[in-house]
Amino acid sequence: MSKDQRQDTEEKSFLSRWSRRKSEQSPSQDTGQEATVPEPVQSESASDTLPESTGESRVLTDEDMPPIESLDENSDYSLFMSEGVSEKLRRLALRKLFSGAGFNIRDGLDDYDDDFTYFEPLGDLVTSDMKHREEMKEKRRKEEEEEERRKAAAEQEAVEQDEAESPTSEEEDSPDAEPVGPEELPEGEADPDGETPP
Questions:
Q1: How far apart are CA 153 and CA 160, in angstroms?
Q2: Of 22, 29, 186, 197, which has the maximum CB count within 10 A?
Q3: What are the phi and psi torsion angles at 58 (to 5°)?
C-alpha cells in the first residue's frame, strides 16, 4: 500500500469515527444544553409603564432648554436633539459640546495640515553643507585673486618689455624732430628694418 493510500484510509477512518460518535450522541443531551439558557422574563410593571410614559411625553421647545452658558462637558445634550428645538439653538449646543477639551484632541498624524511655508531660522547654527559652501566660495575667491595677479604681472611685464625695446634717444622723443625717411638716409647707411635703399 502506498503512502497516499494509507493517508486516505487514516483520514477516512478519522472522519468515519467522528461521524459515528456525533450520530451516537443522544438527542436529550442536545436539548439539555439549550434548556439551561433562561428565557428573558418581561415584567408586567415595565410593559404597563411604557405606554403611559410615551403618551404623557411632550415635545421640548427652546424655552425648555437650559442656557448655553450653563452647559459643560457633563451636561445632557440629548435634550437639544428633540424636534421642537430650533436649528440655531441645536447648533449652538453642539458647538459648545465639541469645543470642549475632550473633543479637541489631535492625533498627531495630521501632517497634511501643517504650515510648511514657515521655516525656523537656523540662527548661529552652521551645518556642514554651509561650511563646505563657504570653503568653496573662499577657494574661488582666492583663485580669482591669483588670476588677477597673474594678469597684472603679465601686463606689467609687457609694458616693461615695450619700454626696454623702444629707443630712448632725445631726438626721437622731441616733438620738433622730423621723421627720417629712406630717401634722406645717406647712401652707405642701412634702413633700421635692415633694407638698403636703392
A1: 10
A2: 197
A3: -120, 160
Q: How far is CA 190 from CA 39, 166, 177, in A?
A: 146, 19, 20
CA–CA gap between residue 109 and residue 117 (Å, rounded): 19
* Cell (9 digits) for 70: 450653563
Neighbours of 85 (CB within 10 A): 19
User: Residue 99, Cα to own-chain centre: how many angstroms?
Assistant: 28
134 — pLDDT class (breaks 50, 70, 90): very high
Task: For residues 54 and 10, give the distance between their C-alpha atoms in angstroms, rounded to a whole number.
Answer: 66
**55-90 residue pLDDT tens:** 457 788 888 888 989 888 888 888 888 888 999 999
Give the three cell numbers for residue 79. Answer: 435634550
Identify which of 77, 81, 82, 79 has the alpha carbon closest to the alpha carbon of residue 97: 77
8-state DSSP, 192: T
pTM to 2 decimal places: 0.29
Q: Could you give the CA distance from residue 176 to residue 42 in angstroms, rounded to a whole number?
A: 143
| Best CA proximity match to 92, nearest among 69, 75, 61, 59 | 69
Measure the CA–CA gap between 61 and 82, rounded to whole angstroms: 8
User: Cα–Cα distance between 60 and 162 in angstroms, integer?
Assistant: 112
